[in-house]
## 1
Amino acid sequence: MASVNRPNKQQNHPLDDLIRKDRIPHIWCPGCGIGTIFASCLTAIKECVATGKNGFDLDKFVMVSGIGCSGRAAGYVKLDSFHTTHGRAIPFATGLKLANRDLNVIVFSGDGDLFAIGGNHFIHAARRNINITVICVNNLNYGMTGGQVAATTPYNAKTTTTPAGNAENPFSLPLLAYASGATYVARWTMLHTRDLTVSINEALSKKGFSFIEVLSPCPVNYGRRNKEKPLETLKLYQEKSIIKNGADPSELDIDMEKGIILGKFVDIDKPTHSEKYDKLYRIE
Ligand SMILES: Cc1ncc(C[n+]2csc(CCOP(=O)(O)OP(=O)(O)O)c2C)c(N)n1
Ligand code: SF4
Ligand SMILES: [Mg+2]
């Protein structure tokens, strides 16, 4: 029999040192995109630390999540991490950053968490230019609770709460982030792992409120109600993605027929909340 090159069971995974192995197996379903995005995030953190730039130090990275399948990330990462209440990841993250400016605070959470129950926190943290990085896993629905409609669900899509189709229009997340004042805004899919890793690295290095939307399949609750088999969603990402760095944020509606624009749309410099606060209230 031909010898097959199988990985040795004892062999370590390159991200092992950033995973709480005692929490494995994880809860994510086969075909779910969250794990891949989580891996890109951990890779970007490791890369930032390896460069030694900006004083990056693993002990100073913090991950905050809300509730949802995506929100489980904070429980799996071997960093200081906070699995907070639904919709409140950004207020927790803001508090951490204001209390200790040396921390690199990453929010990793879902579209429902960040833009429905937590939508208000998102726009105000961006407006204030709080120096944190927010990564949103956008699977177009509330995955964890069975597939209800979200603020990101496309018009006409079927969910448990919109069985005849969604009558509402979704938010364009990059447009919302831009309009609210974010200094860095990008969108990728979970298929674009290399671009995503580079983008997370850039966002972590950016001073100010940085935001990345990552489209991700939820085959179990969204895909099967919308006649999308797991691999078909990935095929759609591959065939419909158009990389257009610098695209006008007003042109970023997700249109599965015409195409999904990906890339980096905003990368600007402006004073952070703490810098503006110091100018007014701290006397040297
Ligand atoms: C205050 C409160 N309201 C509602 C819920 C129920 N709930 C848990 S997760 C969730 C939605 C999660 O959706 P999303 O953030 O998109 O995460 P996903 O599971 O899709 O990754 C909801 C409504 C809750 N836990 N707490
Ligand atoms: S329910 Fe959906 S989002 Fe949640 S783990 Fe399963 S596939 Fe992923
Ligand atoms: Mg979701």
## 2
Amino acid sequence: MRPARWTTRIVFLFYSRPVFRAWEIFCNHAARILAHKERMRSVRFSRAWAHLNLQRMEIQRGLGRISNSHAHVCATCGHCCKGTRERDAFLDRVMQDPNTQHLGARRRTGEMVGLRIAQAQGQILHRDALQAQGCCNELTCAGCRLPQELRPMQCLAYFCGAAAKALSQEECEEGIRLLKRLLKLQWQAVRLALQSQFGRQVQ
Ligand code: SF4
Ligand code: SF4
């Protein structure tokens, strides 16, 4: 595998870390404040959320394919899954289930929507593995129990320098394309939240 040129890796890390982090925080707060909490659950808006969710899943599967190249680095580190705070944000929940009762910035009770879906679809991974202590609820000693497309966006979008070093030039370039699509998707979600205030969707 041809390692990525350092310039490509820097651009990739730039999108993955400061840009994605800041944009994710902004879009989640904006969507949460702008969304009409009843109208956004209507059939029409639920369809629009589901459409965005399909795109989100496809992007996350793409980022997941890249992640396979650095899985060995993360397996020996594990830093990202440490700490018991919940990782799912407003848009992770609403896109997967517009009827979610957890509409705050942070979910403090209940389960991740992705976990509920994985259970219903029989897609839970590492069923027999012990739960990891002091970490995210979804982490087992054998890895995350959620399929990549059902995890919170930040779990797939974040790469550190050590993880990015394990990627090829093609993987970094593909990662940049996918992260740009994820940023655009989050903006579309903010617009949808705003449109729910007025009860109509603007193309
Ligand atoms: S992305 Fe980096 S910090 Fe996070 S688990 Fe992997 S190696 Fe550790
Ligand atoms: S959902 Fe999975 S990948 Fe994300 S922090 Fe939790 S254990 Fe880690």
## 3
Amino acid sequence: MSEGMRLMAVHAHPDDESSKGAAATAKYVAAGALVIVVSCTGGERGDVLNPNLKDDPDLLRDLVEFRRREMKAAQDILGCEHTWLGFVDSGLPEGDPLPPLPPGCFALEDLDVATEALVRVVRDFRPHVMTTYDEQGGYPHPDHIMTHRVGMAAFAAAGDPTAYPDAGPPWQPLKVYYNGGLRLERVRALHKAMLARGLQSPYAEWLEKWQSRREERVTTRVPCADYFAVRDRALLAHATQVDPGGFWFQVPLEIQREVWGTDDFEAALSYVPIPDDEDDLFAGLGTAQQADALATRGGLQLAYDGRLTFEAVRS
Ligand SMILES: [Zn+2]
């Protein structure tokens, strides 16, 4: 049913594509869809988070090149396409007061410049569906928040023939979803399941510290438990960014499959209605040919605006 459909996942850094929605990516690829991951930045300012590689001299000499190779390995494991948008990692500011963002970084980039770059990729790949992060970035890294702004702006502009006329012929993606990665509800369920089996949960401290930044409004749960192992392999391919002994890998896959076998998304905007209990990002779009016709028809009216729902929930 996903044969020939096209999905674009817009992410901030190499490795985000493997920690957020990666099992759904692998599932759609296996079902005959084309998936492209867009990495807005090269991850230039990431720390080395794998204790085994922390002081590796080759790596410290050229982290960027390592991360490019890791991304290629993860891409091959997920079976997707990939492109770099070419902006520079802003880094996660730490300290009190927070230091200013480094000049030239993605989060300080002119929104128009970054949006045009993404619109060009959208008009070239012609996705039926896009995913990006929510307005708080899903995780408040400046690059994740910028990814949200650029992703939403490109979704709005790509189908408008008067916007960025030099960036290719208009193409209107039909839906955009927020991709939140691990959500509170899921972490709670996994935590409980570990304790119920007499196992130690890696999430106790995390749950204590968790501040729900806003209501989570999952609209769409994509069953993809069969691809959790692929997801983990893709994540491990980002060897500098992932501690193989870390909490990501401490919950046995059979427990994850049993307790929470989906990747979850929030519909943000859609030109087709979003049904209750949606389980497919391509739902309502018909065949690839029908979706192509819709995406180029022009004059489409939004059928769903999840941003209004978020506002209503907050107030
Ligand atoms: Zn990131």
## 4
Amino acid sequence: MSKNLRFSSHAEPDKKLIFVGGKGGVGKSSVASALAWRLSRTYKTLLISTDPAHSTGDSLGTDPHKTASRIEHQDHQLDTWELDSAKAFDDFKDRHSDELQLLFDTSTYMDQEDIDQILSLMIPGIDEVMGLKAVVDILKEGTYQKIVVDTAPTGHALRLLFMPEILNHWVKVMANMRWKYKTVQKTFKGKYTPDDADDMLLELKRTVSRMQKILVDAKASEFVLVAQPARMVISETQRLFDKLKEHKVAVNTLVVNCIAPDSKDDFYHQIFMRQKLLLTEIKALFPEIDIISMPLFPQEIVGIDKVEMFENQLFDYS
Ligand SMILES: Nc1ncnc2c1ncn2[C@@H]1O[C@H](COP(=O)(O)OP(=O)(O)O)[C@@H](O)[C@H]1O
Ligand SMILES: [Mg+2]
């Protein structure tokens, strides 16, 4: 069976969420764009970039000033969205400002600035958490059959993936704060009636379990790794792979990008030989997943024509 067959399995109808991740600059946005473009030929697809550097927009040549764009080319289209986690967090605070006020006011008086500070200091990464919440909300809406997430370099991607725990912890802290208030209410009023703040906490808890379910369900989501044949990249990719496995996230594919061709020129031949050796090492290090080698192209992968060229190579490689 040729390697590209399993890679095509991203097109399984049930699998909705595909993360693309790896070290900075290895080709994540190029792979994510090509994969999303391929999926958009069959499915209603959304490509989300969570990288503050926002390079899917660079790959596909979308308007850098717009957060949402639609790329139409020949007979199909792809929607793209540059997700700003800090803004997602602000939106959440705006939407729930009354509930948050209620939540904090019930123990002690705080103004909006205090609340802002408490929320961002208390749980590091809460803005990224809200970013992934936005992804899950889109998934739930059901507008898209496939969502490809072009993640920020390794650290960010991990934070995004482990956010269920972060968010769970956050909800617990909030619930504890409420506990005192509830006890006082019960003592003086004889009973406690849940309010909007309780509803908000409940909604957050539901979001947490939804996300956890999606991330560990190999039928619903998977993580595509991207690397290059360089030792430092390989060790970081391995750490990411181990973390993902530890969290039971499905990883089936590693794309090794920018493989140089052989050459009669001694300098380029040496590079070819070095990469060949590293590729053998990579195959030994990741025996359980498919390794797809992508050649180094003379041009950058910018614009839909180049993305299509990259796509063809990515899917037809054998
Ligand atoms: N196989 C390749 N051949 C040539 N250029 C590539 C290749 N893959 C990626 N690039 C280019 O390398 C740069 C980094 O790739 P990108 O996909 O933006 O990486 P990342 O998203 O991981 O930072 C971009 O300019 C991109 O066009
Ligand atoms: Mg990128």
